[in-house]
Specification:
Helices cover 21% and strands 52% of the residues. It is α/β, with parallel strands linked by helices and 140 residues long.
Length: 140
């Protein structure tokens, strides 16, 4: 009877552990927020807030972004280096975009993460969640 109880208890523990791991994987995300655009001497200063809630720290990450203008045409595509993103920490990253007028930027799309050192392959794009605190659309 005791052996049977131990076997049933072990099976239940394994099931609970699997459910918890599945929930952790489902909530694992990489939050990137477009927080502000401000005119600068070079062009447009873009401020992002990033929070790594994936299951591993990110040693280095970059995003390929497409910027759309007020005619809804792609104005430029560029890669921005967000450096490291420790697990569970928020980081503010600013990029001064030369020859970009903030008032003409209507939408920004993250095309890809050409560099994502730390998490398993594909996890950075898979867990990507974007949002914008301003009127400019920001999509992943």
């Amino acid at each position: 009877m005791t052996v049977r109880f131990v076997a049933v208890a072990a099976g239940m523990m394994t099931a609970v552990s699997s459910v918890c791991q599945a929930q952790d994987a489902a909530t694992a995300k990489l939050d990137i927020e477009l927080n502000a655009l401000a005119p600068s001497q070079k062009g447009c200063m873009m401020t992002f807030i990033a929070e790594n809630n994936l299951q591993a720290p990110i040693n280095k990450i970059s995003f390929e972004l497409a910027f759309f203008n007020d005619k809804n045409a792609v104005d430029r595509i560029t890669v921005l280096d967000f450096r490291d993103l420790p697990q569970g920490k928020k980081r503010v990253r600013q990029f001064d975009m030369p020859n970009v007028k903030c008032e003409t930027v209507t939408r920004i799309i993250i095309n890809d993460t050409p560099v994502c050192d730390g998490p398993a392959a594909g996890e950075c794009m898979k867990g990507l969640v974007t949002r914008s605190q301003i009127s400019v659309l920001f999509e992943g």
